[in-house]
Amino acid sequence: MVQIYLAGALFSQAERDFNKKLQQMMLESGFSVFLPQEDAEDNEDERIERNNSVIFLSCLSGLQKSDMVVAVLDGTDVDSGTAWELGYAYAAGKPIIGIRTDFRIQTPGEKVNLMIQETLTDFAGSVSELKTLLFNAY
């Protein structure tokens, strides 16, 4: 079973809900999913109670064990933690699919920041497009 690391911002209820929606779609499609907000217990309460290095090491382990990364790239700029995870995955040679549902226009020819865009193996503009990409490629 292919394991996907789901990278994305997880700081608002809307972000966490969208991540869960993506996770559910991937699970229903037969993938295993590492979701940092759950699997690394990365949330407000845990950041207060635990040493941040525990969360970091859990996420790093999830990245290392995953076969590929799906990255949520919404917002005016990509979440900094997501950008780090993309760099790590790219250096490790893992396939990366970016999903950006945000319709704000970027620089012509760029869907997201150039350095992020160039790490991507593929790009989806919607959840249904992401599902199709996952079915066709993995």
Span between N and C termini?
10 Å
As a whole number of angstroms, the C-alpha radius of gyration is 14 Å
The CATH class name reads: Alpha Beta
**Helix residue percentage:** 40-55%
Range of strand content? 5-15%
Strand order of the largest sheet: 2-1-3-4-5
Number of strands: 5
Helix/strand class: alpha/beta
Number of domains: 1
CATH architecture identity = 3-Layer(aba) Sandwich
* Number of helical regions: 7
- CATH third-tier fold name: Rossmann fold
Shape: globular
Q: Describe the main β-sheet briefly.
A: 5 strands, parallel
The overall pLDDT average reads: 90
H-E order: EHEHHHEHEHEH
List low-confidence stretches: none
Could you give a short description of this structure?
This protein is of the alpha/beta class and 138 residues long. The chain contains 7 helices and 5 strands. The longest helix has 16 residues, at 13-28.
Strands, helices and their partners?
Elements: E1 3-7, H1 13-28, E2 32-34, H2 36-39, H3 44-49, H4 52-65, E3 68-72, H5 80-91, E4 96-99, H6 114-117, E5 122-124, H7 127-137
Parallel strand pairs: 1-2, 1-3, 3-4, 4-5
3D structure, described in words:
Helices cover 49% and strands 14% of the residues. The protein starts with a strand and ends with a helix. The chain has a single domain (3-137), classed as Rossmann fold (3-Layer(aba) Sandwich), CATH 3.40.50. The mean pLDDT is 90. The chain is α/β, with parallel strands linked by helices. The protein has helices at residues 13-28, 36-39, 44-49, 52-65, 80-91, 114-117, 127-137, and strands at residues 3-7, 32-34, 68-72, 96-99, 122-124.
